[in-house]
Specification:
Helix content: under 10%
Largest sheet: 5 strands, antiparallel
Structural class: mainly beta
CATH superfamily: Jelly Rolls
Strand content: over 45%
Mean pLDDT: 97
Number of strands: 8
CATH architecture: Sandwich
Order of helices and strands: EEEEEEEE
Radius of gyration: 13 Å
Low-confidence stretches: none
Number of helices: 0
């Protein structure tokens, strides 16, 4: 399997593929194509999330301090459980690798 393979040209919503799943960790490939969160939607996850941009660029916004984080290829961030955030913007194609853990 290759993380960059099997990506459709057009996708109406982000694609999430679970690559590894256990009781304590889940690893996902997420593909975005100019997708972003709805204006009033905030992710509020029960797990910690470490995420890296493998391809493309994106902006994440954090609710607590209104901070916007601009991520380019190779940039990663650790998001603590219940740290409310949203996807502010993504380029034409973004491939993320997300690790969710307790």
């Amino acid at each position: 399997m290759n993380i960059f393979n099997d990506i459709p040209e057009q996708i109406p919503e982000e694609i999430t593929d679970i690559l590894v799943n256990s009781n304590r960790v889940r690893i996902e490939r997420i593909v975005s194509k100019s997708h972003k969160s709805e204006p009033n939607f905030w992710y509020d996850q029960t797990e910690n999330e470490w995420v890296i941009v493998l391809k493309g660029t994106a902006k994440l916004k954090f609710k607590l301090d209104n901070k916007i984080l601009h991520l380019t290829e190779g940039d990663f961030v650790n998001i603590k459980a219940h740290e409310k955030h949203q996807v502010e913007w993504t380029s034409a194609e973004v491939i993320w690798l997300a690790v969710f853990y307790l």
